[in-house]
Design a protein that fits this description.
alpha+beta; Ribosomal Protein S5, domain 2; Alpha-Beta Plaits; 2 domains
């Protein structure tokens, strides 16, 4: 039997614009995704047959409702692999927080299986599988920083490594349904008028102050109205020294961007007095 362990980093949305509602029920998006240092660890072992999923967390399913399970099953089907796989998810990313925890686990499984089995698919074939599994899986397969369009599966990587952001991530003790947030969102063209190109210029110049001033999320209009605690976290992070703070994805996780690590460390200590799930994180760039 072969065995492999991979890190599966969380993502945040630095910009999230909802452009329109599509005829297939999804929404057309333009978003800039970025991987961060908070990560699950995915342990994958080959077996004689079948797919088995376990975890240290009771909050995630162990069957076809788990994206990691679906990733393994789809890989076996597409490649004709007869062997099986046992997956253990060491869960560190909060569930249902807008951090792509399930999607990044699925992406890690695809990478692991492509290493463990002889098929060794072309990157485009893995990306095709990722898009079938879930909207954020394609980005999580790629990692780094990218502009995502469509449902989130059409990616334009930002080739420049960009700055190492020092951040504090706060997750309140409730989950938010992504589907419900999108369903409640009223598509408007009254977005804050931020051109993606302006953000990309700031990113490539590694101008952290400008980057922080440009972060934006259309979905806050829904989640902030439903959950006042999200707004309180944003205010608390700013009062603790954040250049700016934003909800990630459909929430409820909120991140603040800080000018340096020392300031972030102090802010994390302050936020832990009021919130249980507080993480001091940085950008994640796989070497």
């Amino acid at each position: 039997m072969k065995y492999l362990t991979l890190a599966a980093p969380a993502k945040i949305n630095l910009i999230l614009k909802v452009i329109s509602r599509r005829t297939d029920g999804y929404h057309e998006l333009e978003t800039i995704m970025h991987t961060i240092s908070l990560a699950d660890r995915i342990h994958v072992e080959t077996t004689p047959g079948g797919v088995e999923v376990g975890s240290n967390s009771s909050d995630i399913p162990a069957d076809q409702d788990n994206l990691a399970y679906r990733a393994a099953a789809l890989y076996m089907e597409r490649t004709g692999t007869k062997a099986g796989v046992k997956i253990f998810i060491e869960k560190n990313i909060p569930v249902g927080a807008g951090l792509a925890g399930g999607s990044t686990d699925a992406a890690a499984v695809l990478k692991a299986l492509d290493h463990l089995f002889p098929a060794r698919l072309a990157p485009g074939e893995l990306q095709s599988m990722a898009a079938v599994i879930g909207s954020d899986v394609a980005f999580c397969l790629q990692e780094g920083t990218a502009i995502a369009r469509g449902r989130g599966e059409l990616l334009t990587p930002l080739d420049d490594r960009g700055p190492m952001l020092d951040m504090v991530l706060v997750v309140p003790d409730f989950q938010v349904s992504t589907a419900e947030v999108y369903q409640a969102y009223e598509v408007s063209h009254d977005h804050r008028n931020i051109e993606t190109a302006v953000f990309v210029d700031a990113w490539r110049n590694r101008d952290i102050t400008s980057i922080a001033s440009l972060i934006y999320n259309d979905l806050e209009t829904v989640s902030l109205n439903k959950h006042k605690e999200i707004g309180q976290i944003k205010t608390g992070l700013k009062q603790a020294g954040a250049l700016n703070a934003l909800m990630s994805g459909s929430g409820p996780a909120v991140f603040g961007i800080f000018i340096d690590r020392a300031t972030a460390e102090k802010a994390a200590s302050t936020m832990r007095k009021s919130f249980r799930q507080v993480y001091q994180v940085t950008s994640y760039y796989r070497e």
